[in-house]
Amino acid sequence: MEPQRAEPDLPASIGRRLRALRTRTGRSLASVAQEMGISASALSQIETGAMQPSVHRLVELVGVLGAPVSVIFDDHAVAVIPDADAPGELNEPVPGVFVARVGTETTAHLGGGVTYRRLTPVPISGVEHFESTYPPGASSSADGGLLVHAGYESGLVVTGTLTFEFADGEVELGPGESLSFAASRPHRVANRTDSVAVATWLTVVGSTGPVDGATGR
After folding, report:
1. Across residues 14-18, what is the average pLDDT?
2. Gap between the Cα atoms of 52 and 147, Å rounded
3. Is residue 202 within 8 Å of residue 129, measured between CB atoms?
4. What is the pTM (predicted TM-score) of this model?
5. pLDDT classification of 214: cutoffs 50, 70, 90
């Protein structure tokens, strides 16, 4: 029986990567906290792993630092190909073909019990592809705040039911249903049910929207 890979202290790992990113950009703790509208103490707790950020807070923070959400999974400020020889995590059975086996992926645990898991073996420039899991009653922001970030987003609900809140209305989706929208549109994701909900997400950072004529309008 192969020994199982020990799972790292994920909140601390996320915080460490966020702190490294902040220092590489030359930003002080106080200046970033001020731009986010939170205290320097709260930001420090996120960076040390003492506090798990919500989805809203995490995306807001990486946005202020000019980085993609994928920085929470890798020790890289930008998307690069990691070491393909890393034991137990990634291999290259065919030159240029990267494979991540079941059980070797890293899951980011965020506030409210929400988890994010990257669905690509390696980071891909300009694209974010994740799976998110929302426990019963969980949401992307506990205070009801709406999220805004760069890119065009598509989400597919795999199991359960999720409600997508916008400033001018809301959409409820069940298994197999999907939606697409500009991530610059203020939004919030919530699981208002008593069952776990799972969705996959594709965010194209440089996209402005659907292909002309694709909506049939």
Report:
1. 84
2. 17
3. yes
4. 0.73
5. low
